[in-house]
Amino acid sequence: MTPAADVPRSPSTSTETLADLSEGAVLGRIFPRLPAAAAELLGPGDDAAVISAPDGRFVVTTDMMIQGPDFRLAWSTPHDLGWKAAATNLSDVAAMGARPTALVLAIAAPPSTPVSVLEGIADGLRDCCEALAPGCGVVGGDLSASDALTLAVTAFGDLEGRAPVLRSGARPGDTVALSGRLGDAGIGLELLFRLGVDADGVPDLERANALKLTHPAEVAAQLTPVPPIASGPIAALAGATAMLDVSDGLAIDAGRIARASGVGIDFDSACLGERIEVALGGGEDHGLLATFAPDSALPPGFRRLGTVTAASASVRAGTITVDGAPHDQSGWDPYRGWDGAAG
Amino acid sequence: MTPAADVPRSPSTSTETLADLSEGAVLGRIFPRLPAAAAELLGPGDDAAVISAPDGRFVVTTDMMIQGPDFRLAWSTPHDLGWKAAATNLSDVAAMGARPTALVLAIAAPPSTPVSVLEGIADGLRDCCEALAPGCGVVGGDLSASDALTLAVTAFGDLEGRAPVLRSGARPGDTVALSGRLGDAGIGLELLFRLGVDADGVPDLERANALKLTHPAEVAAQLTPVPPIASGPIAALAGATAMLDVSDGLAIDAGRIARASGVGIDFDSACLGERIEVALGGGEDHGLLATFAPDSALPPGFRRLGTVTAASASVRAGTITVDGAPHDQSGWDPYRGWDGAAG
């Protein structure tokens, strides 16, 4: 994480807004802050970028984050937004067993937005890439006007000669294992909804900042997740039979592997911690859930959560059980309040 | 353009909105309408897609279109929006001399949006790919909620062993040539601003429809551009020294080649048609502007517009002239009214 000497490392204190500058001038402020990609053959400045794909294939995923439905500016700093936009996309690349190589970024923002907000987003993207996927960088982008701050990231990865790890390869008897955290992001969101708002339920900067002091791990897991990107290629090398990024909660995402693979998954309650409903229901943890052949040792970073079971006439594919008993997914939903809160 | 027998070819007449369906159900309605990519090794349904890159490199560009700043629903049908989102991105890929291979699409829309709107967008994307870049298809996407309809497309291309054609390779004496239309899109926009609005200046469906009958070529050039995608690889094979997509007007975009190449560009007024200011100032034509060595024959589809000139102590790099005289870029600006019109 040693910065180049000439790259600014924190947002400028200027009060200029996007409306004060040309698009070219704004891009000129943002691009120097972004990390270069080792795979970049041609970067920003032409009609398109050119990226190296030595494997002869590339992995691609895209995700859009919009102010309101996806984030609140009272809770997330610009740096947080850039970090999360990178982290969630890198995690989808890693979930294929690929090594992230590059991102492109489209930003739309109101003309009244301070340039320092975009600088902060760029800094968050850079710091996330440097921390979680060294060598991955930003090779291009687009800047538009909008009423709501919007980030669209598309991320690329290289499979390094390996087959992609799909959701559909889990087999009965396989070990179900996780790399990453479980439940913290959901707790963080629930705390923000309950205590990070004012008396009218509107997201509140000061109360959110207080939560960041009293519950740093949970709030950080929600606002600035640290997915185990390196675990993706490690799991692929270790022979993972299926894998995905846990974005909607362990039970829902395990159900996706189970359905795609035509199997069931049984979790061992002793592996899920003290708050089982939180572990199963919390979203946005962005850990990597993978399955491995029964006789193979789990690779570093992964811990056992359960076992793949066979579907049958009485147990349909996609069924999730805990200690053999059906799991009710409606137990805990940290998103319950999401649509009701503005700001 | 022969459709698969089981692919729906026109929007459903259902009145369902996005709020009536799960995200999975909406995607299930959209994806069957989208074209598959010949380069697709793994399509939608996993954490990321896998695309073939036989060249060992890939070209990438991204662009966001937002209701309000970038389009008006009173003027553009959903099919128009899908078409234009694909066409503009394909054009940026072609401008590198690459063959478009695949797209990913992130859509954000209000929950009240009829599903048929998204179906129409998908149909427009499909029809554009089939018409302009056969074999190019949609390999993945993302669906979000927002207040303003937003489309973010990222497009990929294959260089087929060739060097990318950059903006920076034009040399004094080179022929400046264009494939595509010139000025129609700007005239179409000016017509829409002036005559496609009601008495209060608000974009109006009926008046826009009337314009589509009286000025079909100009309005279509603005709302559903047909960039000469095949001309990109053709120009590269013919040895184009520089190339770009004409998106902001001939004079501005020629200036970009000239600045990047350290040269000037002189247009021959006899090659610019009867309305020279419109030819030089109209934006969004999405033709391909390229330069070729003086002794090489222009490839099919390209016509001569002028000559690359040397920069000097008195003529700085980036200078655009017409018949040797400096060009004033402020002559005609079809976007003058853009920010003032809502709807």
UniProtKB/TrEMBL annotation, chains A, B:
SUPFAM superfamilies, per database record: PurM C-terminal domain-like (SSF56042), PurM N-terminal domain-like (SSF55326)
Region (Disordered): 324-343
Gene Ontology BP terms: thiamine biosynthetic process; thiamine diphosphate biosynthetic process
Binding site for Mg(2+) 1: 62-63, 142
Associated pathway: Cofactor biosynthesis; thiamine diphosphate biosynthesis; thiamine diphosphate from thiamine phosphate: step 1/1
Binding sites annotated in the UniProt record for ATP: 141-142, 167, 247
Binding site for Mg(2+) 3: 47, 92, 245
Chemical reaction(s) catalysed: thiamine phosphate + ATP = thiamine diphosphate + ADP
CDD domains referenced in this protein's UniProt entry, alphabetically: ThiL
A Pfam entry, by short name: AIRS
Class in the EC hierarchy, top level: transferase
Binding site for Mg(2+) 5: 248
PurM-like N-terminal domain sequence ranges: 45-157
Positions annotated to bind Mg(2+) 4: 47, 61, 92
More details: Reaction mechanism of ThiL seems to utilize a direct, inline transfer of the gamma-phosphate of ATP to TMP rather than a phosphorylated enzyme intermediate.
Record-stated family: Belongs to the thiamine-monophosphate kinase family.
Protein name per its UniProtKB record: Thiamine-monophosphate kinase
Organism whose genome encodes this protein: Cryobacterium gelidum
